[in-house]
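Duplicate of #3305? Posting structure anyway:
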């Protein structure tokens, strides 16, 4: 008989919670692989087998398995709960021949947590923060932070189940919600030490209570909005929705120009966007709302705009947006390559910025620029020609109705040139991909 590799889901009640089939495979195995906690938990059942602690050695596991099976020696792998729910199962399924791997899942700790709360969970979004410790959440953090994906999910969903870690624990998650202004929107339940003698499941608590609490490991966090979210406007937001500097007219990319500029940027839900000369933040923030799985990096040199950008960022409830105070090209070298770039102000570095942006654009990316002066338009066209870019120019001149006595007239806005450019020879976008 050919030896088998069996992936066994285990809960914290150890062997008592395993069925006969799982116990038989475990006891017959010549090699048992698992994390140190599970190996200790099931030590009485694996006396005859060789032990392998996979902690910090996940990449070695396929080789261990293949070596054992080559000698026709059965292998058992221990995993928490359901190994295919943010567990090792997905990793091994992609590394081993399907016929070599049998999976015996257990109940997931998420199922157990919802059962203890008596709460239906078919609409829940599952998240994991088992990443390395990235420290406390900070507003404007990027995808390198261990809580980034969870923060984006909190913006989009009303019920979440979160697999925690000792570092990214319930209090840290609660403090993240506080820093993003969501403390009053959510309530939190913590399911601790499930299937252990010290099992404890809180009811739904205020975020402020969890932020300063202490909870037994391991635990699962359930986040629930107090009220369902309303759907925000995604495109064509009214200018008055933004805080802005207002001398004679608001210093903002007007809605009509903003709409065309965003359309020319060819955004997808995953786009990485640069907003150079952010002003009030209108273009970058609207782009962030459209690119829900992407990220916007914005920079503005004018100190008078900083408060407006911060206020708009907070009011819009967006976490995939990072703002920097400085004069481009400062900071750009630390940003990831963009799928789209918007230049609303250059601070006199226009030629250099065009070269940098075109050189950094990903395949199929677009650079979109707004100008109101002939000089900047001329400089831009000359630079694009010299660089061999594909480019075009359109002029937008909108007029808005304005009351006069008991009637209305059209009042013209300033005409704006919108210059769109990409590297030569770029293929057309794939319309089948969102």
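Output from current build:
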């Amino acid at each position: 008989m050919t030896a088998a590799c069996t992936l066994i889901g285990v809960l914290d009640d150890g062997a008592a919670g395993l069925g006969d089939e799982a116990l038989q495979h475990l006891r017959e195995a010549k090699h048992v692989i698992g994390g140190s906690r599970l190996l200790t938990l099931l030590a009485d059942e694996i006396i005859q087998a060789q032990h392998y602690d996979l902690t910090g050695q996940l990449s070695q596991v396929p080789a261990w398995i293949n070596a054992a099976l080559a000698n026709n020696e059965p292998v058992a792998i221990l995993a928490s709960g359901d190994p295919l729910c943010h567990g090792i199962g997905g990793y091994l399924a992609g590394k081993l021949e399907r016929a070599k791997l049998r999976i015996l899942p257990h109940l997931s700790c998420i199922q157990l947590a919802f059962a203890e709360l008596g709460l239906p969970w078919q609409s829940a979004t599952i998240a994991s923060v088992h990443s390395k410790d990235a420290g406390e959440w900070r507003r404007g953090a990027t995808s390198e932070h261990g809580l980034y994906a969870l923060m984006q999910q909190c913006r989009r969903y009303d019920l979440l189940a979160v697999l925690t870690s000792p570092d990214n624990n319930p209090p840290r998650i609660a403090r993240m919600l506080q820093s993003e202004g969501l403390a009053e929107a959510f309530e939190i339940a913590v399911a601790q030490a499930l299937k252990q003698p010290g099992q404890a499941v809180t009811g739904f608590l205020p975020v402020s209570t969890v932020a300063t609490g202490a909870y037994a490991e391991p635990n699962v966090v359930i986040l629930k909005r107090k009220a369902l979210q309303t759907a925000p406007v995604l495109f064509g937001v009214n200018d008055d929705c933004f805080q802005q500097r207002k001398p004679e007219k608001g210093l903002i990319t007007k809605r009509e120009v903003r709409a065309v500029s965003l359309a020319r940027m060819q955004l997808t839900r995953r786009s990485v966007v640069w907003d150079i000369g952010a002003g009030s933040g209108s273009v970058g923030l609207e782009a962030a709302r459209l690119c829900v799985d992407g990220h916007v990096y914005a920079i503005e040199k004018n100190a008078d705009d900083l408060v407006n950008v911060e206020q708009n960022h907070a009011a819009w409830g967006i976490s995939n947006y990072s703002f920097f105070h400085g004069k481009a090209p400062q900071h750009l070298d630390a940003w990831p390559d963009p799928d789209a770039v918007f230049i609303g102000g250059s601070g006199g570095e226009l030629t250099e910025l065009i070269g940098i942006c075109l050189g950094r654009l990903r395949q199929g990316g677009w650079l979109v620029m707004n100008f109101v002066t002939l000089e900047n338009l001329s400089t831009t066209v000359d630079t694009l020609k010299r660089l061999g870019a594909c480019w075009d120019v359109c002029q937008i001149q909108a007029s808005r109705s304005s009351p006069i006595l008991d009637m209305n007239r059209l009042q013209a806005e300033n005409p704006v040139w919108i210059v769109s450019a990409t590297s030569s020879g770029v293929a057309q976008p794939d319309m089948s991909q969102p």
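Confirmed duplicate; merging threads. The first helix runs from residue 20 to 28. The chain is about 30% helix and 25% strand.
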